[in-house]
Amino acid sequence: MQTAQKLDDSREKSVGLAIFLNFLLVGLGNLYVEDTQNGIIFLAVSCVVGFIVFLSGGVFLIVAIPYWIWGMYQVNTVATKYQTHFATLREQEAQNAAEQETADKKRKLLEAKISSDNFLTELKKFKQLQEADIISAEEFGQKKQALIASVQIKGIQGAPEDFLAALILPLQGGSLSQEDVRAIKSAIL
User: Fold this and answer.
1) What was the pLDDT predicted at 4?
2) Nearest to 79 by CA among 24, 7, 25, 11
3) Which residues fall within 8 angstroms of residue 61, CB to CB, at 6 or more apart?
4) Angle, to 10 degrees, between the axis of helix 36-55 and the axis of helix 61-112?
5) 73, 112, 169, 188: most buried, per Cβ within 10 A?
6) pLDDT value, residue 10
7) Angle (CA) 35 40 46, round 5°
8) φ, ψ (nearest 5 deg) of residue 156
């Protein structure tokens, strides 16, 4: 998936302003909507037409007015295409952001899942605390049940068979009961 690029809001253009600029001088609206090549050409033609109208004493207005009207129509078309393209980019940006958010959620879910190593480390820590009389057998049982509940809620990383195989030693050592293993098995299979 591609990284979403943030669109610059200042690049969004107004169709009405583009038409108004071409109303003032054909070619300005094109430059405004980043149609630079046509904008320069139309500005040059506008200057030539304006100069000819000036030299002809206004007689050449019969050609200049249709050019002027055509210029406003033409920039409307270009600006509308620009707006449509910009809207498409906005939609694509939103879609990319949504896809990124979904990928982040999936990654966080995977990170939240419990590995057999983490489970065994926590269980061993609680058992050592109990054996050192730092926590009681009842507290050990509560912490063990909370650990088993976290497996039931969050799920596990890796294959269920591998997770269950990792429980053999704690089962044999007495840290886990058959009932505990059955609860974990029902949660992960």
Assistant:
1) 39
2) 11
3) 53
4) 160
5) 188
6) 58
7) 120
8) -125, 160
Query: How does pLDDT run across 114-139, given as a tens digit for each residue?
Result: 889 999 999 999 999 999 999 999 99
DSSP 175: S
Q: Do 110 and 154 meet the contact criterion of CB atoms below 8 Å apart?
A: no
Mind listing the pLDDT tens digit for each residue in 143-163? Answer: 999 999 989 888 898 899 999
135 phi, psi to nearest 5 deg: -125, 155
Domain ranges of the chain: 12-106, 116-188
Stretches where the chain sits below pLDDT 70 are 1-10, 109-111
Give me the helix-helix angle, 137-154 and 178-188, nearest 10°.
Answer: 20
pLDDT given at position 105? 80
Please check whether residue 35 is in contact with residue 78, taking contact to mean a CB–CB distance below 8 angstroms.
yes
State the Cα–Cα distance between residues 151 and 5, nearest whole angstrom. 38
- Three-state secondary structure readout of 24-35: HCCCHHHHHCCC
Whole-number Å distance between alpha carbons of 189 and 175: 22
